[in-house]
Write a structure and sequence with these properties.
This protein is mainly beta. The protein contains two helices and 14 strands, in the order H-E-E-E-E-E-E-E-E-E-E-E-H-E-E-E. The protein has helices at 2-17, 227-230; strands at 23-35, 48-62, 67-82, 94-108, 115-124, 127-128, 136-137, 141-156, 159-179, 184-206, 210-224, 243-253, 258-268, 277-289.
Length: 291
């Protein structure tokens, strides 16, 4: 059923998007950082080239007086190329950024304190090179289906603060490497379910100059499909600890086509690591708004 849903979504999405009456925003950006040194340069520095490509898109439509549909897509990919310190030959590029995040939310706008909603989220990456000799495309995959109540705390023009709480079911699909020669993988699937709290913030600090976007997701699992397999192990209760993902994006427009962006992400998932994981990206590059 999930595969059928994904196929239908891919086929029908363009029809809905270009059907008219959609509030659409989309922008593309490319950031580059380059270093070069002469052969007689002392100090041990090596040449490097880093690039990051980002694409963000939002499509929202009030389907009727009582139904609202909002789709958000966030994509990113980047690599770093470096020279060998001894030979000055360029080494194979290393991935620096990789993200696929698509979310679709349907709300029943009944005009009450809380609006019922249903949501579907697809999270993955373009290239899984955790095993360098066997690169897997779009792996691993996390699917999240949720339903509950949503409330708009603040909305003015393009600025808004929306929070929602509901029940959610997650499915984690991973093509695990079994052997390298011959190349062989097997698909492992883990399911869990529980309570999910999501808050989205979009706020213009300075019109046409400085803008902030943030997303906080907290998930508290109530069951896990592998709980029986984990009994007796040191990590048997790790899945019971709440997961958190806090993303922040600050965008400063220098000119119409030049932007400086600061992205930070704080992730906590005890099943992966006992400590919180932090990511920070500061970049300056070209950007183009399609809509």
């Amino acid at each position: 059923m999930k595969k059928l849903f994904l196929v239908m979504a891919i086929i029908l999405f363009p029809t809905f998007v270009f059907a008219g009456d959609w509030l659409i925003s989309s922008d593309l950006s490319l950031n580059l950082t380059q270093n070069a040194y002469s052969d007689n340069w002392t100090g041990g520095e090596v040449g490097s080239l880093s690039w990051t490509s980002l694409a963000n898109a939002t499509a929202e439509k009030q389907l009727s007086d009582k139904w609202n549909w909002k789709n958000v897509g966030k994509f990113g990919f980047g690599q770093t190329h470096k020279q060998n310190a001894e030979t000055n030959d360029w080494e194979a590029p290393e991935k620096s950024t990789d993200k696929i995040d698509i979310e679709s939310v349907v709300k029943m706008t009944v005009g009450s304190i809380v609006d019922p909603y249903g949501a579907f989220r697809f999270e993955s990456q373009f290239l899984d090179n955790s095993e360098p000799s066997l690169k897997r495309l779009v792996n691993p995959i996390r699917l999240t289906e949720s339903a509950g109540g949503s409330r708009s705390i603040y909305k003015q023009d393009k600025d808004e603060i929306v929070t929602r709480v509901g029940f959610a079911v997650r499915e984690y699909i991973d093509r695990v490497v079994v052997s390298i020669n011959p190349d062989k993988t097997k698909t492992e699937t883990t399911n869990d379910g529980g309570l999910e709290w999501v808050s989205d913030v979009k706020y213009t600090i300075s019109p046409e100059r400085l803008r902030y976007e943030g997303k906080l997701t907290v998930f508290q699992a109530l069951y896990n499909s592998k709980s029986d397999e984990l009994k007796g192990l040191p990590n048997e209760d790790y899945w019971k600890t709440a997961d958190a993902n806090w993303e922040n994006l600050l965008t400063a427009s220098i000119t119409k086509y030049v932007q400086v962006t600061l992205y930070t992400q704080l992730v906590y998932d005890k099943e992966i690591d006992k400590g919180g994981r932090f990511k920070e990206t500061l970049a300056m590059g070209l950007t183009y708004k399609l809509f």
